[in-house]
């Protein structure tokens, strides 16, 4: 996940202050030096770094902060607020047309993730608004882009308008819009062509499409991995086309995240979504305050809860809560939960959204090995239905059979059953309101 080393560095810088009873102006200066370096290393634009550090410093050396009872906490609060401001302060929703259809045009360089995002957005609109979007395949220079969009359309059961690669994109958009009006689609999402670099021919074409389609939104899709370059690209698209929002993709990768932190300040255009993976569901609405809190290692419970709600069936959740309380959680539930949680994204990323988790010892090395998950599943699948429902049946001879059946040693089977039982006991305690959980990490 992006921002990992930035989070560490910021926490270190601010952690030093926490240890001090009294914070002096010199301490603040030292912390700001470290924060500045951390931001520069994360590839944040120099101008943005300067503005950010200036505002934090000015507010932090204000007498009321340094003289307060908890100066370190006050300063963390200021850093959080200024970071939120740099990221755009408010969540900015998609602009809508009072009359249907709302037209959204995707622009950006080749490979930034436009086509993928077009599919993700269609999925998001369908899920959250029950929308009926039409996708227009306007990228005629990369033939695979049309097929890619059609495949996404099929997966989502959303219509895709295309005219192959021989017709001009402007004409395709014109006819696509006509079809959308006829069929009363409420959204039209236009996937346009990218180039390797910003060039005049591309801009002319996009300007023509803009003039014709009069889009409500022109969303620039940029790849977080390209760092400072993403900021330059955003500036030129904005100057020549006037973008209304930015989508930052590939934040799941090993990026330093500087682009995400700089783009709003440099272009003035709000970040509206972030891409966090290749799957259609790997899209997050961008909330500056939540992102700031995540970057500072303070967790993001709201996003975690929303993600869980998206994937969760309420009735099932209630059944599960009942089972946890009664201690009747069995191996079938275990597998179901494992699949459910794994579908929400890498576990180590989810864990980091829980406030305080970042500071837990050993958390930086916490990794879930997919092979380990597969092994646990194999063990469960080698149990009989009766054993899965009643783990107490698992006597030594049954355990030997399961070990042989799943290709594991008896020691591993024993360990997994022990962990399962411990987790079950802990869940019972938690569901009865006891959150004191030593050894929580063992559960995974
Ligand atoms: P386009 O040329 O701008 O239309 O780019 P594509 O949509 O074809 O995306 C280029 C590549 O980036 C594809 O392999 C996508 O699967 C991948 N991609 C797009 N968005 C994301 C993302 O948020 N995370 C990751 N890891 N990969 C992405």
From TrEMBL:
Q: Which SUPFAM superfamilies match?
A: P-loop containing nucleoside triphosphate hydrolases, Signal peptide-binding domain
Subcellular location(s): the record lists: Cytoplasm
* Keywords associated with the record: Cytoplasm, GTP-binding, Hydrolase, Nucleotide-binding, Ribonucleoprotein, RNA-binding, Signal recognition particle
Name the InterPro entries on file.
AAA+_ATPase, P-loop_NTPase, Signal_recog_part_SRP54_M_sf, Signal_recog_particl_SRP54_hlx, Signal_recog_particle_SRP54_M, SRP, SRP54, SRP54_GTPase_dom
Q: Molecular function (GO) terms listed?
A: 7S RNA binding; GTP binding; GTPase activity
Q: What is its EC number?
A: 3.6.5.4
Q: What does this protein do?
A: Involved in targeting and insertion of nascent membrane proteins into the cytoplasmic membrane. Binds to the hydrophobic signal sequence of the ribosome-nascent chain (RNC) as it emerges from the ribosomes. The SRP-RNC complex is then targeted to the cytoplasmic membrane where it interacts with the SRP receptor FtsY.
The family line of this record is: Belongs to the GTP-binding SRP family. SRP54 subfamily.
Subunit comment? Part of the signal recognition particle protein translocation system, which is composed of SRP and FtsY.
Q: What is this protein called?
A: Signal recognition particle protein
Which species expresses this protein natively? Enterococcus sulfureus ATCC 49903
């Amino acid at each position: 996940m992006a921002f990992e080393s930035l989070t560490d560095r910021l926490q270190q810088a601010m952690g030093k202050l926490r240890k001090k009873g009294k914070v002096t102006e010199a301490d603040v200066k030292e912390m700001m030096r470290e924060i500045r370096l951390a931001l520069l290393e994360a590839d944040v634009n120099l101008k943005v770094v300067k503005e950010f550090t200036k505002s934090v410093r000015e507010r932090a050396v204000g007498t009321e902060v340094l003289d307060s009872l908890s100066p370190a906490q006050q300063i963390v609060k200021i850093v959080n607020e200024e970071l939120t401001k740099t990221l755009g302060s408010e969540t900015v929703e998609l602009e809508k047309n009072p009359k249907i259809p709302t037209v959204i045009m995707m622009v950006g360089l080749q490979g930034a993730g436009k086509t993928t995002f077009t599919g993700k957005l269609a999925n998001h609109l369908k899920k959250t608004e029950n929308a009926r979007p039409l996708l227009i395949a306007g990228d005629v220079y990369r033939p695979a882009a049309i097929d890619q969009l059609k495949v996404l359309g099929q997966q989502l059961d959303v219509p895709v308008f295309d005219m192959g690669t021989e017709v001009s994109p402007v004409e395709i958009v014109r006819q696509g819009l006509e079809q959308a009006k006829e069929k009363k689609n409420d959204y039209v999402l236009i996937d346009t062509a990218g180039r390797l670099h910003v060039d005049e021919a591309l801009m002319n074409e996009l300007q023509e499409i803009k003039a014709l389609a009069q889009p409500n939104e022109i969303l620039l899709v940029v790849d977080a991995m390209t760092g400072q370059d993403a900021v330059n690209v955003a500036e030129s698209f904005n100057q020549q086309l006037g973008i209304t929002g930015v989508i930052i993709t590939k934040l799941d990768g090993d990026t330093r995240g500087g682009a995400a932190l700089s783009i709003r300040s440099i272009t003035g255009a709000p970040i509206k979504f972030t891409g966090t993976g290749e799957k259609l569901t790997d899209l997050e609405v961008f909330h500056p305050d939540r992102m700031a809190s995540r970057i500072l290692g303070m967790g993001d419970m709201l996003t975690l809860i929303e993600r869980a709600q998206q994937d969760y069936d309420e009735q099932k959740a209630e059944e599960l809560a009942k089972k946890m309380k009664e201690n009747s959680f069995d191996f079938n539930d275990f597998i179901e939960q494992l699949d459910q949680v794994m579908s929400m994204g890498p576990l180590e990323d989810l864990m980091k959204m829980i406030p305080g988790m970042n500071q837990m010892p050993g958390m930086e090395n916490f990794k879930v090995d997919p092979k380990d998950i597969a092994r646990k599943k194999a063990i469960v699948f080698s149990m009989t239905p009766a054993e899965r429902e009643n783990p107490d049946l698992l006597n030594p001879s049954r355990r030997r059979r399961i070990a042989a059946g799943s290709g594991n040693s008896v020691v591993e089977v024993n360990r997994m059953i022990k962990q399962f039982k411990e987790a079950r006991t802990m869940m019972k305690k938690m569901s009865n309101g006891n959150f004191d959980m030593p050894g929580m990490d063992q559960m995974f």
